[in-house]
Write a structure and sequence with these properties.
Radius of gyration of chain A: 24 Å
Helix content of chain A: 55-70%
Distance between the termini of chain A: 33 Å
Number of helices of chain A: 16
Structural class of chain B: mainly alpha
CATH superfamily of chain A: Formate dehydrogenase/DMSO reductase domain
Mean pLDDT of chain A: 89
Oligomer: heterodimer
Structural class of chain A: mainly alpha
Low-confidence stretches of chain A: 458-480
Number of domains of chain A: 1
Number of domains of chain B: 3
Helix content of chain B: 40-55%
Shape of chain A: globular
Number of strands of chain B: 0
Shape of chain B: extended
Radius of gyration of chain B: 25 Å
Order of helices and strands of chain A: HHHHHHHHHHHHHHHH
Low-confidence stretches of chain B: none
CATH class of chain A: Mainly Alpha
Order of helices and strands of chain B: HHHHHHHHHHHH
CATH topology of chain A: Formate dehydrogenase/DMSO reductase fold
């Protein structure tokens, strides 16, 4: 009966999905997640991915070593394009980190239960992305061994950094961000580290996890302090979701360059950051749930919710592009106008068109429920958005620099081998750190998943249409 | 299950977390102190020279003016290191056969300059100019100390930027009348603040905002 099949398919599309596949108990959740970190041998696929990550990390180390030996001249940068891949990558990475903070802080304060399965690795992703991001301004310094000059400290020069410079604000924004993210992630890990300590069969595992668990015994006082600390950190991290990329946008907005000097920049950058961050969470979550069989915990509902966030933030980013074009026309400023014309039809026009297509046009597919329910489509979309958001930063940085006010000082930027190797290398560092993380730490919060089990009294269902759930075709419980 | 950690671990953990702040502060403080110490700056460390030339004898005992040897101090950025000929003005007659001065006589005979070891060596990115300092009332001893009491010359200051800025931020505390520039015994009068301010006015010394601009010393 073709008709019945159609109804079945439609029901599959429209029925609300629970946050966790049915049939799980406290023990099965703990077993499933902790066994990945405690396994004696990781699966073969892990070795393949880690090998790739570490190989690219070595490429990064070689590139940075050569950079320190020779100076930033090995990159394609020169006057007038003194900022190119380095700063593009910095903004791209720091933006990616924002999704983790949004998921862990804002969604926690808003009591969004669905965050529990993705917050742990999203926070880890934040940390690794910030590590990759922080690298770029440092190696871009020319004399990276003097990087500590960026910090205000008592010195024999009797001077402070220039506090009126957004580049100094960056130092504070990024270091605060890294510190709070690390604390948040680590404190959230403590109860799970104690679980690993108790379940580890090797002495080394017991000692290392034991030290990291800091004596967690799960007493009522421990839990009460844990809750307080998490709430406080969430409160601290919430403004960071907005402030960090605002400060990053000031690096550009505070200057007088057409294409940089725009009041829309802070909200536009923050939206772009969350957009690219969720795309990256998706890029990581989809292979993870597939290879480790975690479809029970990272359900279609999580992917759908993330797709909706991506659609919303993508539209804000599109509004940002429109505003830039509108301001160029409406201001009557010929340099601003030229900036837009140069983006559309100048020598780097392909980059701008590719950015419009991958950031604005293709993601409109997310309006369709079928796309939001298709794992391959979401994975492909997340990759497209990652590329698009990188192009956005490239367009903003290089296109404004290469042709400014005086045609006599125009120039072109062409990336060299070392530009590409440093970029690929930082992706490698990110992948390597991520693989170490999924090997040795629980990639999903065990104790938080247990709180959303039906047994724990949390039968919250998407859309709150009905307290009952319908199992999807995928996502069978692994243990009874 | 047996305990993994000894009971004392609790204390160690607490102390190390609490102590981290102090350890970090101590490291920064130690680095700051070492960076300003004579070990790094070479202040107060006399340098051995090819000829044991004593400023104490020539300036203190004999009363030779600084400019007799450092001839370009009023006209040039560089105060000038005297040629061997300047030494021979006197030493062709005095101690003319002393073993002590054999190197000086050799240098003169072979027309090869003596290679002195530089004591006050500023980094190349600092464009220090002697003539402007002398012109604006900064005396020799303000920076070089009591050279008339030094058998072998040494730095009396770190020569680090914070030391330069002590004067560039408050020149009135250090300037002296122009006729006292080469007076080694000059001490700031009790009313130096008033006197200094008058001299700053009189010698048209720029205010500290101008004097602390980066490009004043770094170009």
């Amino acid at each position: 009966m073709p008709n019945a099949r159609k109804i079945d398919e439609e029901q599959m599309l429209y029925t609300p999905t629970p946050l966790i596949a049915p049939g799980h108990t406290y023990a099965s959740v703990t077993d499933k997640i902790s066994s990945i970190a405690l396994a004696r041998r990781p699966p073969l696929g892990w070795f393949a991915g880690a090998a790739l990550g570490f190989a690219l990390t070595i490429l990064l180390l070689a590139s940075v070593a050569y950079l320190i030996a020779k100076g930033t001249g090995i990159w394609g940068i020169n006057i007038p394009v003194a900022w190119a891949f380095g700063i593009t990558n910095f903004v791209w990475w720091i933006g990616i980190g924002h999704a983790g903070t949004l998921i862990s802080a804002i969604l926690l304060l808003l009591r969004q239960k669905w965050r529990t399965s993705i917050n742990r690795f999203a926070e880890a992703m934040t940390l690794f992305a910030v590590a990759c991001a922080g690298l770029y301004p440092l190696i871009h310094l020319g004399r990276p061994w003097l990087a500590y000059w960026l910090a205000p400290y008592p010195n024999s020069m009797a001077i402070w950094p220039n506090f009126r410079s957004p580049l100094v604000w960056d130092v504070f924004a990024v270091s605060t961000y890294a510190t709070v993210s690390l604390l948040f992630w680590f404190i959230g890990l403590i109860p799970d580290l104690a679980t690993l300590r108790d379940r580890s069969r090797s002495r080394a595992g017991r000692i290392i996890y034991g030290m990291l668990a800091m004596g967690w015994r799960g007493s009522a006082i421990h839990w009460q302090r844990y809750e307080t600390a998490t709430l406080l950190l969430a409160g601290l991290a919430t403004p960071l979701v907005v402030s960090v990329h605002t400060v990053v946008s000031f690096d550009f907005a505070v200057s007088v360059l057409p294409g940089w000097h725009a009041t829309i920049f802070p909200p536009y950058f923050v939206a772009g950051a969350i957009y690219s961050g969720f795309a990256m969470v998706m890029t990581i979550a989809i292979p993870l749930r597939k290879f480790y069989g975690l479809e029970d915990f990272i359900t279609m509902r999580h992917l759908r919710n993330m797709a909706k966030v991506m659609l919303a933030t993508g539209l804000i980013v599109g509004y940002g592009y429109l505003t830039e074009a509108f301001m160029a026309v409406y201001s009557g400023n010929k340099y601003e106008r030229f900036m837009v014309v140069n983006r559309l039809f100048g020598p780097y026009a392909p980059a701008y068109w590719a950015l419009l297509i991958s950031n604005i046009i293709i993601p409109q597919a997310l309006w369709f429920r079928r796309v939001r329910n298709s794992v391959p489509a979401l994975f492909a979309l997340s990759l497209v958005i990652n590329v698009g958001m990188w192009l956005e930063r490239f367009v903003i940085i290089v296109l404004s620099l290469h042709r400014d006010f005086l045609p006599s000082s125009w120039g072109m930027f062409r990336p060299t081998f070392w530009d590409w190797s440093t970029y690929l290398g930082s992706i490698g560092l990110f992948v390597a750190l991520l693989f170490l993380f999924i090997r040795f730490l629980p990639m999903i919060s065990i104790f938080e998943i247990r709180t959303i089990l039906p047994k724990a009294g949390a039968t919250e269902v998407e859309g709150e249409r009905s307290p009952s759930w319908r199992p999807e075709t995928e996502g069978r419980p692994s243990t009874a | 299950m047996p305990q993994i950690f000894h009971h004392s671990t609790n204390t160690i953990a607490r102390v190390s977390i609490f102590g981290a702040v102090f350890i970090l502060a101590a490291i920064i403080w130690a680095a700051y102190e070492i960076n300003g110490s004579s070990y790094v700056t070479q202040a107060f460390v006399p340098r051995e020279q090819p000829v044991q030339f004593s400023h104490k004898h020539h300036v203190g005992d004999d009363g030779i003016d600084c400019r007799y040897c450092h001839t370009s101090v009023e006209k040039s950025s560089f105060a000038g290191i005297p040629p061997t000929k300047t030494c021979m003005n006197c030493h062709s007659q005095l101690f003319a056969s002393s073993d002590y001065l054999a190197i000086v006589r050799d240098s003169w005979r072979e027309d090869k300059p003596i290679v002195w070891k530089r004591v006050h060596d500023l980094p190349d990115y600092v464009y220090f100019n002697h003539s402007i300092h002398v012109k604006k009332g900064v005396g020799c001893s303000t920076c070089h100390g009591r050279v008339d009491l030094m058998p072998l010359v040494y730095q009396v200051a770190s020569l680090q930027m914070d030391w330069c800025l002590t004067c560039h931020r408050n020149p009135e505390k250090f300037v002296r009348p122009r006729d006292q520039i080469y007076n080694m015994e000059w001490e700031p009068p009790p009313d130096q603040n008033t006197q200094g301010r008058k001299l700053v006015e009189q010698y048209s010394i720029s205010n500290s905002i101008v004097l602390t601009r980066c490009s004043i010393c770094h170009r």
